[in-house]
Amino acid sequence: MGTAAPPVDTSAAAHPRNFGSDNWAGVHPEVITAIAEANVGHTPGYGGDPWTARFHDIMVHHFGPDAQAFPVFNGTGANVLALQSALPRWAAVITAASAHINYDETGAPEKVGGLKIIGAATENGKLTPETIKSAIIGRGHEHNAQPLAVSISQSTEWGTTYTPDEIAAITATAHDLDMIVHIDGSRLGNAAAHLGVGLGDITTAVGVDIVSLGGTKNGLLGAEAVVVLGTDIGHGMRFLRKMNLQLASKMRFLSAQLNALYEGDLWRNSAARSNEMAQYLADKLAEAAAQGRVPGVEIVQKVESNVVFVRMPAEVAARARQTFAFADWPLEKDIVRLMCAFDTTNDDVDALVSAIAGD
Predict the structure, then answer these.
(1) What pTM does this model have?
(2) Cβ(320)–Cβ(285) below 8 Å
(3) 3-class secondary structure for the chain?
(4) How far is the first Cα of the chain from the last one, in angstroms, to the nearest whole number?
(5) Helix (H, G, I), strand (E, B) or coil at 119
(6) According to the model, what pLDDT value does residue 149 have?
(7) What is the spatial distance between Cα 17 and Cα 158, in angstroms, rounded to a whole number?
(8) Sheet of strand 335-339: strand arrangement
(9) Is the pLDDT of residue 73 over 80?
């Protein structure tokens, strides 16, 4: 007979809150309740259920009457599916070099989606109309993938947030060049909460064509969505979602999560909380630096979402990691990324600052 696996220690001490990623956080209690409430009886699969129908209505409320919503399993799948549904096989997508679709998805948009990704150098992770224009090469030449889309992350991988005016300028430029605009919105809620606007104000109202809508980073168990905003794109979505392994048979459990997040204010409250904790962390680190408690520690990016980027000496990082987990930022040496989540508390932040200071 085999040896039984040891039981998992589920105590709070064994699983403290950490700052490695907002993906490390658990599931919001309201989402757990929504999943349990959806676990009743039999209902049609593959989206033919009332929870998915309700999700469509909620997305129309946020994004306008033309919005079409498609729940999927994960963010990479959402990005690949969104771009693939809106573009021909010969297309290229212009994005920031630091963008998730360029740097963090193992080439999935190219290998699975069949699309060329052009990563442009940016300041603070944000594209501009000028950057987009300068990245367009080979237009009309059969030897080159054709630049037919712009993809921006909102908020960006550097934690910066595009304003509505900045997005409007990008969409105007892209549309003038016969290109569509996609938003990787894995943290769209954080951006909207930071700006104090609605989800539609930074998408539909400023000309965005298609959105990958996040959920997992804001308290869901595992659910994202593609929201098509333009009526002339995304027509193959029904077939591509299945082909790309993103069609859930028991879709009601994805939709129930998304409904719990987006029907009321949970998305905004959770995102605002994680943003507030990031700002609190930045303020406490700045205070500790002014007191001389954290020599060599420097905040390198203005906090506009739920992440703080810090230049941190290796020995300081090693000391803090005896208590807390956080990531080295691979795009620049000696910088660490401290991510806050919907369940991060002031006490968590205070304890992290103490660990960094060696108190």
Answers:
(1) 0.95
(2) no
(3) CCCCCCCCCCCCCCCCCCCCCHHHCCCCHHHHHHHHHHCCCCCCCCCCCHHHHHHHHHHHHHHCCCCEEEEECCHHHHHHHHHHHHCCCCEEEEEECCCHHHHCCCCHHHHCCCCEEEEECCECCECCHHHHHHHCCCCCCCCCCEEEEEEEECCCCCCCCCCHHHHHHHHHHHHHCCCEEEEEECCHHHHHHHHCCCCHHHCHHHCCCEEEECCHHHCCCCCEEEEECCCCCCCCHHHHHHHCCCCCCCCHHHHHHHHHHHCCCHHHHHHHHHHHHHHHHHHHHHHHHHCCCCCCCEECCCCCCCEEEEECCHHHHHHHCCCCCCEECCCCCCEEEEECCCCCCHHHHHHHHHHHHCC
(4) 49
(5) strand
(6) 98
(7) 22
(8) 298-299, 307-311, 335-339, 327-328
(9) yes
Task: Tell me if 126 sits within 8 A of 153, measured CB to CB.
Answer: no
What Rg value do the Cα atoms of the chain yield, rounded? 21
Across the chain, what does the average pLDDT equal?
Answer: 95
Determine the Cα–Cα distance for residues 224 and 202; give it in Å rounded to an integer: 18
**pLDDT tens digits for range 115-163:** 999 999 999 999 999 999 999 999 999 999 999 999 999 999 999 999 9
**Amino acid, res. 344:** T
Q: Is the pLDDT score of 1 beyond 60?
A: no
Burial class (CB in 10 A: 0-12, 13-18, 19+), 197: middle
